[in-house]
Every structure is written in structure tokens, then in C-alpha cells.
Amino acid sequence: MKEAVRLGEAARGRSAPNPNVGCVIVDDGKIVGQGATAPGGRPHAEAVALKQAGKKARGATLYTTLEPCAHASERGPTCAAIIPAAGIARVVIGIMDPDPRTSGHGTRMLRKAGVEVKSGVARQAARDSMSGYLSRIERGRPRITLKLALSIDGKVALPSGESKWITGEDARAHVHLERAHSDMILVGRGTYQADKPKLDVRLPGLEQWSPRRALLTSGEAVAGWEILGSPQDVYRLHDVNDLLVEGGSATATAFLAADLVDRILIYRAPILVGEGKQSLGYIGLDAIADAHGRWRASDGARLGIDRLEVYERVRE
What is the Cα–Cα distance from 139 to 65, expressed in whole angstroms? Predict the structure, then answer.
């Protein structure tokens, strides 16, 4: 299942609106087939793995990070039907699919066809990998990640506005990897006018995975950019699983004030700016007590001279 999760994670940012599922087929202790959801959502991970396994799928165990789909689609057959047809004897599932068209139906179809089913294996790892899809199904909006590049003292720029570059090359490369795993990147109108950012992926071999670009603005449309008039417009992004918010300060503040940020990536550089531009404005907190318990540190890493801090929003 760990390998299935790894495969699914590699497909994050490419499978929307479908989930980024990973699948591994094992026979006699050996992997005979593996796959992930293809770009655009089809074929599904199970179909990819079954095609690779061929006749070796008969009697084998299939590991999948998400319950196999059970709803009919013009784009292909249901996985809950092709799995038993291929002769799979046992299916191990990471998490059940919250999509009401499949939820529970997929496992019932498999069991009815004589396939042994076990669920809940590596559940948290599977949830983490598909958190964007799960957010869209359960909350009606993408998972939203806010990226901030800060000095030690929390500044994003000098008083003049100069901010290029606060962080080093390793940190910037990591940002490009995050872009490749996102369906859409959003910045504010001010950042667009000041920097004219491309927001593309400039890592060798991943250039084709540059995500869609969006502006948070009440102004006129810009060619090549999608427009969100307010943070609440994320609820109409029905084909986006993972949204990356990159700037600037006003945009970050607006999303935090609306309590729409699920994850924060802070790239902290070993520099002191002193007087300079703050990363955030007023986000609706009037007491320190209200700030506690809202965020938990979930990860961190050294990126060359810089430090990455990852925080997750604590929700019910």
C-alpha cells in the first residue's frame, strides 16, 4: 500500500477532477502490475495496473488507495466491474470513496462477485495524498495551500517592495515541485501588475505540468488567466482539487480571514530585513487565545540555506 500511495502522490495535480489514485497488484509476493490515475482522470489507476498485469492478475491481490469506482461513465467501465472480471481474488483499500455515486457500492459489487475486500489500510497516508479530492467532495472546494517566502523576522519584502530573491535556489525548486502538484495557482492583482509572474513549472522534465493560472481581482479579465472575484469563488472550482495561493500579502490575508487556507508552506530564509513589508494584515483575530489551537506543525525540512515549515489547519 505504501507503493500505491507513492504512485498516487506522483499523479497529484494531474488527475483532476478525478482523484489521484495509486494501485499495485501483487501475486506470490511480487508486483505484477502498478499504475496511477492518468492525466485528465482516465484511465483509472486500477485499469492501468490490470492492463500491465494481464493474465497475472488472476488470483492476485490488488492494493488501491481509494475504493474502486462503481458508477457508470461514458469515459470507461467501472473499476468494481473490471477487477473481478480480471480474476483478482482480493482487494485491499486505503480509504472509502466519499463520492455518493460510489461510496460503499464499489465494495459491495466486489464482494458480490466473490472478491475478498479489506479497507482502512494505510488510511491516513491515503487521505493525505488525496486531500485535494476529498476536500472538493466533502467541503465543495479545493484544498487550499498558502505559500509564503519570509525572512527570519517575517517580512516578505524591503520597504521599497523589493523581494527578489528572499529564498535560495533549493527553496525555489521546491516551490516549482509544489506547482507541479497543483491544479491551479492564484495570485492577487497587485502581484500580477508588479511582477507579471509566469507561475509555470521550470523543473527539467516537469515543464508540461504547469498548472492553470488565476487572479484574485474585481477588475477586468486578463488573457490566459482565470478570474476569482473573491476567496469565496473557490466554491465554483469544480474541476480543481489542489489550489496553490502564492501571493501577495493582501491575497494571503483575504484567504486566511475567510478561513479557507488548509495548509501553509513557509519558506524561511536566514536573513533579517527589519523595517519592511509584513506578510499578513488583519485576519480577524482580536485575542491571542483565539489564535491558539488553529494550526499544527506537520512537516519541515532544510532546503539548502533555507528552512521549510509546513502547517495544517486544525478542523473538526
Answer: 20
pLDDT at residue 25 above 80? yes
The alpha carbon dihedral of 7, 13, 15, 20 has a sign of: positive
pTM for the model stands at: 0.92
pLDDT tens digits for 282-297?
A: 899 889 998 999 999 9
C-alpha cell at 2: 505504501
Phi-psi region at 114: left, alpha or beta (left = phi > 0; alpha = psi -120 to 50): left
Catalytic machinery residues: 46
Secondary structure of the chain in HEC code, one letter for each residue: CHHHHHHHHHCCCCCCCCCCCEEEEEECCEEEEEEECCHHHCCCHHHHHHHHHHHHHCCCEEEEEECCCCCCECCECCHHHHHHHCCCCEEEEEECCCCCCCCCHHHHHHHHCCCEEEECCCHHHHHHHCHHHHHHHHHCCCEEEEEEEECCCCEEECCCCCCCCCCCHHHHHHHHHHHHCCCEEEEEHHHHHHHCCCCCCCCCCCHHHCCEEEEECCCCCCCCCEEECCHHHHHHCCCCCEEEEEECHHHHHHHHHCCCCCEEEEEECCCCCCCCEECCCCCCCCCHHHHCCCEEEEEEEEECCEEEEEEEECCC
Q: Inter-axis angle of helices 2-10 and 45-53, to 10 degrees?
A: 120
If we measure between CA atoms, which residue out of 47, 43, 42 comes closest to residue 83? Answer: 47
Output the pLDDT for position 150.
92
Query: Minimal CA–CA distance to 21: which of 179, 132, 108?
Result: 132
